[in-house]
Amino acid sequence: MKSLLLLAEAISVITALVNGLVIFYAVPHYDLIPLALTLGVTLLVLAFAKYYGCL
C-alpha cells in the first residue's frame, strides 16, 4: 500500500513538471493549450485520489 502512495506521489510530481513545461511551451503555440489543460486536470485527479485514499 505504501508503494502505491509513493507511486502516486511520483506520478503527481512528474505530471506537475510536465504540465509546467507544456504550459511554458504552449504560450506561443495556442494549439497546445488543450493538452496543457488536460494534463492539469490529470494532476488534480491524481492529487484528489491520493489524498482521499483511492490510490
UniProtKB/TrEMBL annotation:
Species source reads: Ignicoccus pacificus DSM 13166
Segments crossing the lipid bilayer:
7-27, 33-52
| This protein's UniProt keywords | Membrane, Transmembrane, Transmembrane helix
What's the protein called, per UniProt?
Uncharacterized protein
